[in-house]
TrEMBL record:
The keyword Transmembrane helix applies. It comes from Zhouia amylolytica AD3. This is Uncharacterized protein. The keyword Membrane applies. It comes from the Bacteria. The chain crosses the membrane at residues 12-30, 36-53, 65-83, 95-112. Keywords: Membrane, Transmembrane, Transmembrane helix.
Length: 130
């Protein structure tokens, strides 16, 4: 049986912190707006946190899929805002949302990189021997 092993404890702690902050944000958004759409990312984040805490062998794959979503979503948003600005929309109203999307895109790229380089699957026998 395989388990997920995080070789970089800083990445492990930062990943859990980032997921926790996003989870709180989505739950706060749901609580204030009563919009059920805000529960979808919250449920996904709870599942990923559960996989990480239990060191499930699917944790690496779940983090990778989540990172790809964190990369694809802001990339499309940045592209859309760029097209709007090129078509003559006001640039000043797009700056702050653009900065937020760039930060989320950067976080997704870092999560994907560190997930690929510092997270690995090991057999339980190897895990117990170390």
């Amino acid at each position: 049986m395989e388990r997920t092993v995080f070789k970089n404890q800083s990445f492990y702690i930062l990943l859990i912190t980032f997921l926790g902050i996003l989870l709180c944000w989505n739950l706060w958004t749901f609580w204030n707006s009563k919009n059920l759409i805000a529960l979808i990312p919250a449920i996904i984040q709870i599942i990923i946190l559960g996989l990480i805490f239990t060191k499930n062998k699917q944790a690496k794959l779940a983090i990778k899929i989540w990172a790809i979503i964190l990369i694809a979503g802001p990339s499309l948003s940045i592209l859309g805002n760029t097209i709007k600005v090129l078509l003559g929309d006001e640039i000043l109203s797009k700056i702050m949302p653009l900065i937020i999307q760039i930060l989320i895109l950067t976080a997704g790229l870092y999560i994907n990189h560190f997930n690929n380089t510092t997270v690995e699957l090991k057999n339980i026998e190897e895990f117990q021997n170390q």
